[in-house]
Specification:
By secondary structure, the chain is of the alpha+beta class. It is 34% helix and 33% strand.
């Protein structure tokens, strides 16, 4: 009888310890998963809308520039004095910057052929007429180039979010040779579709005191 009771007590002790260990392991796992989820979320949020896969491609100076770029541009717009050149266009520029982004595919980019530049800095808002541009498939990627006008940007378009893409290239003047990303004339920007037949490309300066907005249409 005593032997049986000892065996039952031993079995009970073993089962109790097993339950405690499993309970602790489950709690620790849940805590680890929760902590990991929080860390991932925080890491993503700090990128300000930039896909983590692009971090290794972007220059360090451009990571901050591209993050939350529309908010940076709106801050420049809000700081314009009412006596600055082209101030009357501020509402129209704000409308472009705050328009809801739509899903955009690489294929539909190929149909856009016209682009105009809107440059905003402390002296005011300077808008230019439409010039020609082209999107084409090159080396398995989408390549963009402004093909006329004195100031021209060209470079590759990279997938980012379903409603945005990243431009990485360079700028040149008139018929000078095109430049590439990472060169002295390196340029990075964001592309958004804001209408059935309208895109914008936003290039915020490194000092956040100015920006250039490309408005594109078919």
């Amino acid at each position: 009888m005593i032997i049986v009771m000892k065996k039952q007590l031993l079995i009970f002790s073993f089962v109790f310890m097993f339950v405690v260990v499993m309970s602790y392991a489950k709690t620790a796992t849940q805590g680890f998963v929760a902590d990991t989820a929080v860390n991932v979320t925080e890491a993503t949020d700090t990128l300000g809308g930039i896909d983590p896969s692009l971090v290794g491609i972007l220059l360090d100076e451009d990571k901050e520039k591209l993050a939350d770029d529309r908010q940076k541009a709106l801050a420049v717009l809000d700081n314009l004095g009412s006596d600055t050149y082209g101030f009357y266009e501020r509402t129209a520029v704000r409308r472009l910057l705050t328009a809801k982004s739509m899903r955009v595919s690489n294929g539909e980019l190929l149909s856009y052929r016209r682009v105009r530049s809107i440059q905003v800095h402390s002296l005011g808002i300077f808008s230019y007429p439409y010039f020609s541009c082209v999107f084409r498939r090159t080396d398995g990627k989408i390549f963009f180039a402004k093909t006329s006008g004195s100031q021209r940007k060209s470079g590759y378009i990279y997938d980012n979010t379903p409603t945005s893409k990243v431009f990485l290239g360079g700028w040149s003047v008139n018929d000078d040779p095109r430049t590439v990303y990472g060169s002295e004339n390196s340029e990075a920007g964001m592309l958004y579709k804001i209408g059935a037949n309208k895109l914008i490309m936003l290039f915020v300066s490194k000092d956040r005191r100015s920006f250039e907005l490309y408005e594109l249409k078919k």
